[in-house]
Amino acid sequence: NAGVTQTPKFRVLKTGQSMTLLCAQDMNHEYMYWYRQDPGMGLRLIHYSVGEGTTAKGEVPDGYNVSRLKKQNFLLGLESAAPSQTSVYFCASTKAGGANEQYFGPGTRLTVT
Amino acid sequence: GENVEQHPSTLSVQEGDSAVIKCTYSDSASNYFPWYKQELGKRPQLIIDIRSNVGEKKDQRIAVTLNKTAKHFSLHITETQPEDSAVYFCAASKSQGAQKLVFGQGTRLTINP
User: Fold this and answer.
1) How far is residue B86 CA from its own chain's centroid?
2) Residue A7 C-alpha from the chain's centroid
3) Helix (H, G, I), strand (E, B) or coil at A53
4) Which residues of A touch B104 (CB under 8 A)?
5) CA–CA distance, A77 with A111 (Å, rounded to integer)
6) Of A36, A100, B33, B113, which residue is the least packed, with the fewest Cβ within 10 Å?
7) CA of A77, closest CA in chain B: separation in Å?
């Protein structure tokens, strides 16, 4: 049982390049989330999904897109990377309904030059 | 939307002493308040949470108190140990539907031997 995994662990992009971050969970969780964490700040929600085929915007969605084609996977895309998107990205998942523990992945450190 | 303020940003205590971290929230509809511990380079991990229908919850050396009227909640760690050194984040959300956590800015706790 791997829990929540993320690929890649590290990535360096040039401004304007695109990439996709993959999150996978094997806990059969309905809800999945993408956060970003900047130095000296808490995590901020980018997008989330309450089920396969559904996504919604969080607190800081601009410049990102997401897809949830399979229940176990949640993809975060950057179409045209900007230096302001340099951050550590965390994926998380929870069971549906109520106040349940969010399980986080190990994070992806992204640098945009 | 919800806004969570966390204080202090850094806290240094002697091993064996107690540590207290405080958070305030703005949205009276928030009813779920988790606390996460994040060690350097690691993922956030839930250490304790509280729902708005209780005022206090304790788990061994860790306790959380909630004052709904004043809209603030606090983390208390007693008999601190070196392994308690980490960054601690509070968060708030509504428990209905997707758990869209809004995080505080974090407190770097250092336990001095």
Assistant:
1) 12
2) 10
3) coil
4) 42
5) 14
6) B113
7) 20
Could you give the 3-state DSSP secondary structure of residue A11?
strand
What are A32's strand-pairing partners?
A49, A93
**How is residue A19 written in tokens?**
């990439």
CA distance A43 to A95: 20
What CA–CA distance (Å, rounded) separates A47 from B100? 9
A26-54 pLDDT tens trace: 999 999 999 999 988 889 999 999 999 99
Q: Which two tokens mark A25?
A: 């969970």
Average pLDDT, chain A: 95
Cβ–Cβ < 8 Å for A51, A65: no
Q: Is residue B90 scored above 90 in pLDDT?
A: yes
Decide if B105 and A107 are in contact by the 8 Å CB cutoff: no
